[in-house]
Each structure stands twice: as C-alpha cells, then as structure tokens.
Amino acid sequence: MKIELLGGYTKDELDARIKKVASAGKLSRFPGNVFEVVETCSDTEKNIKLIKRIIGMGHKSIIEHDYLVFALCDVTPIVEQTIIGNRLTSFTIKSRREVDFRNAGFYVPEFRNKDMSIHKDNEKLKELYEKHMKYLFNTYGDIVDEGINVEDARFVLPYSFHANIIMGLDARELEKLTVSLLAGPLSRISELRELGENFRSIIEEAVPYLTDSMQAEIEKTSDKTPFEYLESVSKRPEISIIDKPHLVSYTPSADDVILNSSVMYHYQVDRIAANKIIEDAVQKDVNFKEKLMDVILHKEERRELEQVQFTFQIPISLSILTHLTRHRMHSLLIPEFLPMWDMKNHITPPTIEANEKCLKLFNSAVEKNIEMFEEFKKYDILEEDLIYFYLGCQMLNVMTTFNARTAQWICRLRCCNKAQWQIRNVAKEVAKQIKEVSPLFGKGLGPTCMTDYVCNEGRESCGLINTILEQKNK
Questions:
Q1: Is 2 within 8 Å of 164 (Cβ atoms)?
Q2: DSSP of 127-166, one letter per residue?
Q3: Which domains, ranges and CATH numbers included, belong to the chain?
C-alpha cells in the first residue's frame, strides 16, 4: 500500500489552504466584507490556532473548504468499498471491465488470533494463502485466454487483488474517514487500519489544524459492532439471496405527488387548490397529466421528482457492487464484511456458463476457494483476516432508497445496452417495478435512446438509437 497527497505540501500551498479555512472561520463574526476578512488572514500560525479553536467548538463546516486529493496505490476492493461508502468522497478507479488484472498483485494479511495477536502459524498460513491466491489469479488468466472478456472473468478474482484509486474529499470527510479507520469497527481489519495510519501521518504534516480535533474524536469512538444488541435477542438466520430486485416500499400515488408539487410551488397554492387546477386542466386536455410529467422529466432542475421515494432490496455481486454504490444520491445499506457471508451464494456470468471448459475452471475455483476458507477457519483465525477469500461472484442483498430523480438517472445509465449485464438487469427490473406503481413517471425510466431519442456513446453506440429514430420518423 502506498498513499500520497497530490499537491498541497509546499509552504505556499499549505499557507494558501489554511488561509481559506481561516477566512471562512472569521467571516461570520468579524467586521468587513469577504475580501477584507481574507486580507486579515496572513499569519499561518495564527490561522491554525483560530481554526483549531473554532472546530474545537464543533463548528467544522469551515474545514469543508480545504479539499484534498489522494493517490491510493495497491489497495484492495476492501479499501475501495470503504471509501466509496463515504458518500461525500470523489473517486476514480482503474476499470476491471477494460483492464487485464492477472498481474495486478494481491494483499497478504498477517494472520491473527481472536485477541488480535499474531497467530503462531502465521508464516505457514501466509504461504498457503499466497499459493491459493496465485491459483485464483491463474484461473482468471486461463479464463481470459479462452476468449472470455475480462469483464466476466473478474467474477473469479478474490477480494485481495490490488486496485489503484484517485480519491478527493474535504478535510471534514477526511477526519471522519480517518477516525473510522483508526478507532471504529473497521479498525479491526488490518489493511483499513494501515490506511488510517497513512492518513494520520499525512494529516500531521499537511493538515496540521486537524490533529487535535481528530484525536478527540478517536478517543470517544468505539470499535464495537452496533449490532450486538440485535444479535443478543435474535438468532442469526441462514442467509437467503433474493432472486431479483424487490420494491419494498414507495410513496403512495407518486405520480400525483410529483404533479401536485409542480403546481403547488409554481403557483404558490396549497394541495387542495393544486388538485383543482389539475382537474380543470384535465377537462381541457385529457392528456394534461402525461404532458406535464413529460415536461418535469426533461427540466434542467427536476426537484419535483425528489418529492417521492422508492425503497428496493437488490441482489448483487461483489464484482458489480461499485456500479451501484458510485451513485451517491441514494441511501444504500450494504452488509458489513463481517460476520462472513455464506460463500456458497455466488453467480456465474452467462459467457462462462456457455463455455464448458471455462465453466469447469470457474466452478473448480469457487469450490477450492470455499475449501481453503474452511481450512483456514479451523485455525481459529480472527475473522477480519479471512475477508480476502471473498470472490467477485459472491452475492449479497443490499437495501437502498432513492428519490425519483435518482431513479431516473440510474436507469438512464444502467438500462443502456453498453452497461454491464448484471447491473443492466437490475436497472431494468427496478424500472419495471416502478412503472407498475407510478406509470406516468415510469415512462421516463430507461436508456436515453428510448426516453430522449439521444445516445451519448458516440462511436461506441450499440446502434439501437438508429433503429429508434427510423421508427420515430416514419
């Protein structure tokens, strides 16, 4: 693992960053306009003291003006999923749909006892682990060599493989993330704690105003799981992966709520008056509701769509989970890495199922991985050190709630024929179920070629847009 802050280290850069934060801290209470306040913040040491005092009182919004960009080299998807879970980070990740990962390398943990001390058989276990990981990577390579695209071959990759990421976040999110990695439940995962230590070292040098506040947060943070009470009163059931996305709950009469909200805020009337306006409009034009919804669906700002929500439970693989988590404007519940999920719950890509040799390679790898996982469990190893046995094909159920605007955005991207097949199937099923309860809004769900008669894929277009336009212009 190698973590670097991209820029912001030189004296001039550091002084400028700190000056911005101090200016924000002074602005609300000091006399003068914003430029006059900025001019008073010329002493870096005084600025640091001022910032520490303000954030020490809990006023941390000022440090959101300090934005930092990090390069994360040779970290695993465990790190990737953790940082993506922080909704206010920005990230760019090397694509597993386009890049051959057989030589990416993998993470090797130090295997520990339940008390987090190094296991007496640590070296032996690492040797077995490395041999097994090389076998999985070789299987991935063999499947690729048989003509399966890397997008599908990656389903056999273990969660130990190295990823490379550029991540941006403000200082407030950096503090929150670092505290979580150093003191929360995630700190029990050695790789995540190492990441936290890297961030702490960088903070001490490049974000000096944050050290006292961060330490105070660390001291009051617990590494205990928040599910201890639940598990004390309820026996853990067998994990059951659902067959397709299920609409759990939704805003009743969602179409009417969207239309009413548009009339209510535009005409500044109450719900009863808005209903009357819509009823009168329908008398003049029986297609009024459909036409108004179409206008809302294509507005620059579609705030009316944010007034209704849909909650789904979605089955998805680890390989494709990031395709859902990267859509930040929804409330996503992903099961923790621990306790370990049922390793037998997995999915096989259709291209591999259709290739007898590759299917044999794939199934053998999945079976041997489960066998090796069970073998390691016999050593009574700390569970946090076993999470790297997860494969990309591992299935899990996630919960999420999104408003109609986010649903439209997700479906525009993920219903496209260019989208990865599993997330495309998920998006299409989500769109189908929303259409059943919100038919007017549902007409706006789908790829842009169908909803807007445009395709943004350029030369990589699947060509469907041409067929649609030909039919439209007949």
A1: no
A2: HHHHHHHHHHHHHHHHHHHTT--HHHHGGG-BTTB-EEEE
A3: 252-305 (no CATH), 307-335+396-472 (3.30.70.3180)
Amino acid at 439: P
* Residue 95: count of CB within 10 angstroms of its CB: 10
- Beta-strand pair 309-317/331-333: unpaired
Residue 252 preceded by cis peptide, ω within 30: no
Please check whether residue 316 is in contact with residue 398, taking contact to mean a CB–CB distance below 8 angstroms: yes
pLDDT digits (tens, 9 = 90+) for 21-58: 999 999 988 889 999 999 999 999 999 999 999 999 99
- Report the DSSP beta bridge partners of residue 296: none
| pLDDT tens readout for residues 413-422 | 999 999 999 9
Beta bridge partners of 400: 312, 332
Q: Which amino acid is at 387?
A: I
Single out the residue of 316, 284, 328, 464 nearest to residue 396, CA to CA.
316
What is the reported pTM? 0.93
Q: Are 165 and 72 in contact (CB under 8 A)?
A: yes
